[in-house]
Each structure stands twice: as structure tokens, then as C-alpha cells.
User: Which sequence fits this backbone?
């Protein structure tokens, strides 16, 4: 629906007559809001166009780039015999710097994994995170799902904590990206099943391959 809406908006701009004098409305298309120079100024804001939230800028500065991962899995959850994995992560900034995307690929004891994530800032909810991976039955899910709080970033650690159910059992997931430097970071995931204590599932050590051009 969003793509359709953007296409219709583009059509409206292309089909509209030449811009009118300030304060005068241009011709409108049925079903779409009327457009005017005043409404355009309101969208941009009196002080100029909107800017990315500081939290997204900080997170992007810390993670944007290409990384190689070495992964160690404990004998629990999806890897009952444990094991190691090796993969790659690519974090990119979206248009205007308003979102941070992640592309992930790894060969693990749980199988070959392909993932894609999007992190953005919501003024009322804080950081939000959509995660897609080939083992999800639905393909993509909000992670953590509402109304649980989104990811927490304090400039040093990114924490994702969620509670839910899997196969009828209570599941707690606690994931942390920490020890972030210009060339490396550590990523861990702890899991609690059926109300038990949190146990380490995997530890990932990432090493930077490339630095984005803007850094």
C-alpha cells in the first residue's frame, strides 16, 4: 500500500499544473489531499527538512560497513550438539540516513541462514526493528514484537530483549551487541526456555572488512 501511495503522489505531482502563486491551491486529483505551497512548507517544517534522529545517526556511525563473523554455538536450542559458524553482516544507511539496514548470511550448525533487518526511529516508540530470516514461518516479524519495547541503544551497547512462546513453551530472548570499536564488535544471544534461567546460545565475534565512504 505504501508503494501504491507513493506512485499516486508522484503521478499527482507530474499531472499538476504549474505551481501557483504563494497561498493559492493548485488543481487536485479526486481522492487525494489538495496540494499547495503552504502545505509543502508545512511538510518540510519552518526550520528546514527533517533530520535523522541522533540515536540512528549514532548507531549508523558504530555499525555501518561490512563485517566477517566467527560464531560459536552452545549445545542448546536449535543447535543441540553445538558447533561453529562463519558468516558476513553488512550494515547500510538508508536514504537520508533515517534507517539502518542489515544483511546477514551465515553457515551455522542450525543450517544456512539468510537475514535482512531494518532499524528506524519512532518519535513515540523509540527504536523499532523489523527482522526477516529464512527460518521464520512468516518471513518477517517485528523484533521485539509490540507492545514490547524496541531495541535499546546507549551509544555503547545495542540490546534486544523479547518474551514470547515457541511450540507452546515460554521463550525469553536476550541479544546484545557490545564491545563496539572501529574494527570489531561482539554479539551474544542468551535464551531461557520454559521459565528457566538464561543460557548462552551463541557468541559472535565480528571483524570489519570495509568502512563506509561517509566515515
Assistant:
Amino acid at each position: 500500500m505504501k508503494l501504491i501511495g507513493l506512485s499516486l503522489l508522484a503521478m499527482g505531482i507530474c499531472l499538476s499544473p504549474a505551481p501557483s502563486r504563494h497561498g493559492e491551491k493548485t488543481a487536485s486529483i479526486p481522492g487525494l489531499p489538495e496540494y499547495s505551497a503552504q502545505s509543502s512548507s508545512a511538510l518540510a517544517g519552518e526550520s528546514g527538512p527533517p533530520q535523522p534522529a541522533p540515536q540512528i545517526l549514532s548507531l549508523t556511525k558504530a555499525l555501518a560497513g561490512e563485517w566477517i563473523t566467527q560464531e560459536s554455538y552452545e549445545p542448546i536450542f536449535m543447535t543441540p550438539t553445538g558447533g561453529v559458524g562463519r558468516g558476513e553482516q553488512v550494515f547500510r544507511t538508508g536514504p537520508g540516513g533515517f534507517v539502518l539496514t542489515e544483511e546477514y548470511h551465515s553457515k551455522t550448525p542450525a543450517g544456512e541462514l539468510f537475514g535482512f533487518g531494518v532499524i528506524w526511529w519512532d518519535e513515540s516508540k523509540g527504536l523499532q526493528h523489523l527482522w526477516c530470516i529464512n527460518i521464520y514461518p512468516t518471513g518477517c516479524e517485528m523484533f521485539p514484537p509490540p507492545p514490547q519495547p524496541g531495541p535499546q541503544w546507549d551509544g555503547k551497547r545495542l540490546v534486544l530483549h523479547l518474551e514470547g512462546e515457541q511450540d507452546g513453551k515460554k521463550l525469553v530472548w536476550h541479544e546484545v551487541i557490545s564491545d563496539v570499536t572501529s574494527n570489531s564488535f561482539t554479539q551474544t544471544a542468551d535464551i531461557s526456555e520454559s521459565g528457566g534461567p538464561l543460557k548462552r546460545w551463541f557468541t559472535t565475534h565480528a571483524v570489519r572488512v570495509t568502512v563506509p565512504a561517509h566515515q
Notes: The chain has two domains: 2-44, 54-210. Helices lie at 2-15, 37-44, 54-63. The two ends are 35 Å apart (CA to CA).
